[in-house]
Amino acid sequence: MADRKPAAGRFITVEGGEGAGKSTQVRRLAAWLDGRGVETVATREPGGTPGAEAVRALLVTGDTDRWDATTEALLVTAARRDHAEKLIRPALARGAWVLCDRFADSTLAYQGYAGGLPLDGLTALTRFAVVDLTPDLTVMLDLPAEAGLARAGRRTASGPAAESRFEGRDLRFHEAVRDGFLDIARREPARCVVVDASAPADNVARQIAAAVEGRLLADG
Ligand code: TMP
Fold first, then answer.
1. For 92-128, how does the pLDDT look when each residue is reduced to its tens digit (9 = 90+)?
2. Nearest residue by C-alpha to atom 1 in ligand 1
3. How far apart are CA 156 and CA 149, in angstroms?
4. Domain boundaries, the chain
5. pTM metric for this prediction
6. Would you identify the CATH topology of the domain 11-217?
7. Which residues line ligand 1 (CB under 6 A)?
8. Which 8-state DSSP code applies to residue 180?
């Protein structure tokens, strides 16, 4: 049933630590869905709208201790509100599938599991900002923190070096981020699928496509 065009938009998020390959896989999934006649909108958090991109610049640049975890949670949530209202909801309403590189699970993983903030408070904050907007499917790209940081470091060395504020955190922080994503996936198996991101990109893309096919396309 791969070529059956679904009637309504779906919201897919791709999550994972630094260097897990999220943006590559969002692009590949968009191309795969486009090939099946599905209109897609690929976007990212923090960001996706001009206002949210301005907040992103505050969050991801500067010294590692520029913001504490609470201020980070408020910044990403303000950006998420703008993104949800101006881009995600309108796209879903017209039937497009929205593929988002990070969403609310990143706030739980980074500011909660790794940053030490209570998960129920962060969940309430997200609900206050975006009410009932929840992903239909979340792909967790899983990779040991050390391997991801090495990949991200190579990327930073050859790209925009300024976006490296979180990469400056220690290994233990990034391991807690990884464990956080895995814990969320364990708690919400109906929404989440964990994919081994250490595999070659083609292989990862195939696994993601299979999950989308099985969980979203098959039920139209
Ligand atoms: P990116 O490198 O995947 O584009 O994400 C930018 C950084 O923002 C990344 O290091 C994780 C961080 N972040 C949070 O800490 N909390 C959030 O809720 C989101 C969406 C991102």
1. 999 999 999 999 999 999 999 999 999 999 999 999 9
2. 18
3. 10
4. 11-217
5. 0.94
6. Rossmann fold (3.40.50)
7. 18, 45-46, 59-60, 72, 76, 102, 106-107, 110-111, 166
8. H
